[in-house]
Amino acid sequence: MTASRVLVLNSGSSSVKYQLLDMADRSRLAVGLVERIGEETSRLVHEPLAGPGAAGGTRERLGRIADHEAALEAVAAELAADGTGLDSPELAAVGHRVVHGGTRFTQPTVIDDEVLAEIRSLIPLAPLHNPANVTGIEVARGLRADVPQVAVFDTAFHSTMPEYVARYAIDAATADKYAIRRYGFHGTSHAYVSRATAALLGRPVEDVNVIVLHLGNGASASAVRGGVCVETSMGLTPLEGLVMGTRSGDLDPAVVFHLARVGGLSVDEIDSLLNKKSGLLGMCGDNDMREVLRRAGEGDEAASTAFAAYVHRLKKYIGAYSAVLGRVDAVTFTAGVGENAHQVREAAVDGLAELGLVLDREANAVRSPEPRLVSADRARVAVAVVPTDEELEIATQAYALVTR
Hints:
The chain has 404 residues and is α/β, with parallel strands linked by helices. It has 15 helices and 14 strands. Strand 10 and strand 11 form a beta hairpin. The mean pLDDT is 93.
């Protein structure tokens, strides 16, 4: 029997999201989440989707889970109860989401001691994410040392950006010394969605130019030419670019100096302000787009202004990336807001007929879990909604690497 299963792990600072997939038919065997690790209120939710365990439905465990090792042991126990445990000979790989790969990691990579040390060395570039990613890798290696552990990097898809796009216009020696450049994030989503858009259009990915708008609480745009990323909105960190749930996006750098000199804020206070207290939340007090839309619909001025700012930034990036690509075949919306908020799609495309973008408003208003076109028949550029699947993308890349 050929091993075909991949366990995908996304380890956060106090959580572990996981999925077990069978790459023989790209099916999901189980999905789950461990949250509030280290607290008395820890919670594990496990949903078996195939096999004998599926008959029992979703299972929930409450109570303290001390650390990531205990969390992964609990995950292993749940999978074992379904007959799909980590000791299964059918497990081909464990795929790990790693947020930052720097310039060193531009492809999925089998993890050994040297690779793990290099991922650890990148912690200064992603201090909120890479430490938890490292912890998840260490624990998983301990639980199943004989199975390949594969790192799939959020930054990798964007590593194809030309050097003149990736470089900031600052002193080159300083930039090189401190690894300051544009890396981009959400890469697994942009990779998956750009390919899925080409499939939706019935064309080879090499022939399709697409603008991908990944709109969740974090949000990013990318310009993808023939399956290759040539520009993206996030930069050194996920702060640059679009207006987001709690992040400011593009900002005059002198705002930081002003806040320090005039406001007396510390570097940490400014960091917290721009990353956690800005964006929609900072402008109107809500970072949930559903609430922003509800309040704006009731005439709330702050919510209306926040929504207008959010949409205006989207339009700017659609226009800019249309110029970068020269020819655009599709603009694709994905992630929580992009997939579900038809008002955002309508507002973002409104007025862009000269760029070839025209919505079918009835089609756009229909909710569906399926990839679909929501553009009018007369539109020169397709407008698509494609649900993202980062876990499947990670599993696909990991499995391809270990079965070469």
